[in-house]
């Protein structure tokens, strides 16, 4: 298997002034394409550190991607360091100078002299086009390793890797990229997902991976291109069947995107009434472009007075059952649906912490209601108390999940990993 | 200066299945304490890769922190690899076995045999306590380098670094930690901040750093411990004076935390009326524990009907001026303040994109209003259009910034970097 190394350059990464997001992105992209990063080093902007890194990486890999150090300033030493490492000079690419001049001319500016440097690459180097920036990428070979030099700016880096470097690696490997299938899930822990999927037999070379990004977990299946289509389909079906009601997307659709697609398909409308989630449900929904086509309005009724004034929740039921209770959250959902004249309404009321818990209703206790044309569905759960933010995020996901399950004719209630059911019913 | 290396271990980082957050955290922590990471490598879980990494790091640094590979499974090879590298065996720490047995006994469980491994460290190693987990940390020395072995679990790693490893480094350096001052700012670009602060003369050894985490920028000043207190105070004052109205915190307080502190100081209350920010203003505020003491309720009036029904915005002014206009956003703020009977109300209405822009009101055009006991302050800005999410985030920050400026008796309106002012007034 091809060994691929990554060298990240930049003092700002080592001082913590910027967070290197390119490396995690590259690691995932390579995996999805059936490759694997085998070694990754981060070094500063000094000449000797760069030369040292090139030497180490070239001894340990077949391909090395060098990221950063192609800018116009004096800290940007990658091209010069590569030339020094190879004991050669730099050449100026006239085609790149022309490109830079055009770039500045189109903005009615003259190319600053400092940018000329960005057209200089080692004598033995081959240009690798950067269609979205002023830094010229290039490739040099040494110690039987191909080194690709790329700019640090994430958008430029990603464009070059996707459009040019990855295709070159795929061509070199003489093997087609694996087939990649995804399932985005909510509600099951990673260990439970693994328990459920372990009994499914995988064809040789197929790999199942998990990637958690709270509160959702992505499952990725990579199958070698050589696998028969019918086998892949059967495998995909087996996994889908196992996970079904917990999967909200088989692509990269966010949960709110999925809800939006379902709402638009049916041509129905939604309002929200939030207490502990405090606007997060509305925020997730409205963060998707086009949400105005179904999302009408939301009430963040944080105080009890607001629950009464805006949603018509009777004062007596708040007094009798408490703000975090099934009767209150049901009245909130019905109040919002009525007031907003929408087909559906979602409501939450809970104890996000860190204060406010009791023996009966500890921090993490959250009541949810979904008002529909067929009546109100409600549940009260004790979610794992991993801090205020996570309690609120998981609550938001549970609320959206109830609506998603309703719209896809799945059972609305389930046992989410790590949470305790206090009540579920219609 | 002491050279510090970091070795991150774990296949899951190289495959992209988990994102390594420990390294950026460590880089920042070391910088804040006057150290600097000089080299960082990430390798997989194979014996030869680990031994190779130890050798490379020890040749390039005085201290090396090794992160990961101390778990109970067969992939966890760090201790064994360290012993192999040093040509020695492993020893079992009876004190750690006793700790593990206690740990499991207190949970009414018997220690699984696999955990015994977590008490095994190289013969020449010294134990480094891990007070919050089952993996024993340790230190070994080789090639004139001290290597500290730490668990990959972020909470355990951070606790050990802060409580034990960092103090050991400080002691070894025979120099006090630098003084660290912070300013969290909103509204100025990094280049403008640099232009403003560049003329301020820094004492020898002092360093000014910028860390952007949209939409705010943190400025950090590190001054050598040897600097006279009066000089540091003068410098701090000069920087504060230069930045003043743009600074919302001189610690780590988030913007919503700062607003909360100011609201509680005055004993006043707040409501919100959001259109384009769609719940994000309420969400930021409610994400802070204790927000119920001043935040009463929020209206997410996404549709025009909701603006009329819930906030009493007259239909005619929507028709005449459009939903994104000063008259509408002022009516929203006044409506919320009236309805909720709060001292203050914040309102937003804008075009977050990607669709919906026009020549007059391009994507990024957002109207803001702050209703106060002294009347309504409002502005309409064209924010930089860097995508729907960023337009909404920056809008949320502008809204909170208006309230913060009012509560601290600063001018409510300013020129935010990159945005165009269409209207500002009371």
UniProtKB/TrEMBL annotation, chains A, B:
CDD domains listed in its UniProt record: cinA
Positions of the MoaB/Mog domain: 5-172
Superkingdom field: Bacteria
InterPro entries: CinA, CinA-like_C, CinA_C, Competence-induced_CinA, MoaB/Mog-like_dom_sf, MoaB/Mog_dom
SUPFAM superfamilies (alphabetical): CinA-like, Molybdenum cofactor biosynthesis proteins
SMART domains the record matches: MoCF_biosynth
Pfam families in UniProt: CinA (PF02464), MoCF_biosynth (PF00994)
Cited HAMAP family: CinA_B
Family per record: Belongs to the CinA family.
Xref: PANTHER family: NICOTINAMIDE-NUCLEOTIDE AMIDOHYDROLASE PNCC, NMN AMIDOHYDROLASE-LIKE PROTEIN YFAY
Record protein name field: CinA-like protein
Taxonomic source organism: Echinimonas agarilytica
